[in-house]
Design a protein that fits this description.
Elements (H helix, E strand, L loop, with lengths): L32 H13 L7 H14 L8 E3 L3 H11 L2 E4 L2 H6 L2 H7 L2 E4 L4 H10 L3 H13 L4 E4 L3 H14 L5 E4 L7 H9 L6 E4 L6 H19 L6
Parallel strand pairs: 2-3, 2-4, 4-5, 5-6
Antiparallel strand pairs: 1-6
Helix pairs in contact: 1-2, 2-10, 3-10, 5-10, 6-7, 7-8, 8-9
Amino acid sequence: QPQIAQHGHAKGLLERAAPAAIAPDFAPYQPHPIEAESFRIIDAERDWSAYALGEKIVRQRLVHTSGDLDCGDDLFFSPGVVETGLRALLRCRRVSTDVTMVQSGLRRDLLARLGIETWCGVHDAESAMLAQAEGITRSAAGIRRAWQRWGNEQIVAIGDAPTAVMEAVRLIQEHGWRPQLLIGLPVGFVGTRECKAALRRCLQLPRITNAGTRGGSPWAASVVNAMMICAINQVAGVWEV
C-alpha cells in the first residue's frame, strides 16, 4: 500500500483551522439527465468489471471529459490511491494546481459542497521572482511554493507542465514532501513521458498518472472532480469505495 502522508513532515507547513463539519443530511450527487445518459453510454461501451468502483468512476469521468474511450488504457493508479484520495479530500480539503486551467476545471458546486479550497501560484509575483532566481519555470515555482505554503496537507493536481511534475518529484525525493495525493497528467512531447515515468517510480506517496503524451488540464481536473463525486456519495452513505 502507498504511504499515507503524515502532518508536519515537510518544511514550510502552515497551521490552519480545521474545516467545518459536513452536514449529516448530506445528499448524494445528482447528475444532470444529459450527464447521466452520457455515462450510461460510456458504461455500455466497454467492460469495466476489472476495476473497483472508485477507479471505474475516475476512468469513466476521463472518458467523458476527453470523448476518447481508450484514454484510460495507459493510466496508472498506485495501490489504494482512490481510497486515500477520498480521505484526503474530506480531511485536509485543499487542492493545489500547476496552472489556473486545472484550477478553473474543478467544479465549483462540488468544491462548495465539500468545503474544499484551491490554490494556484503560477501567476503570483512571488512565483515569477522564484522562477527567475532559480532558473525554473513558473509552473515549477508554483509547485515549490505550494510545498512551502501547505506542506503535506494538500492534494496536488498537475495537468500542464512536465517541469511541475519533475519539481514535485525532486521535492519528494530530496525534501521528504508527502502530499496526500499527486495527480500528474501533463500533455505534450517534451519531457512528458520522462516526468510521468519518474512519478510512477515514486513509491513514497499515492499517485495517478499515465505513460504517454496524452493528458492536459481538463484531464487533471476531471480526476479531482471524479474523486469529489465519490467523496460526496461516500459521505451521503450511497456506497463505499
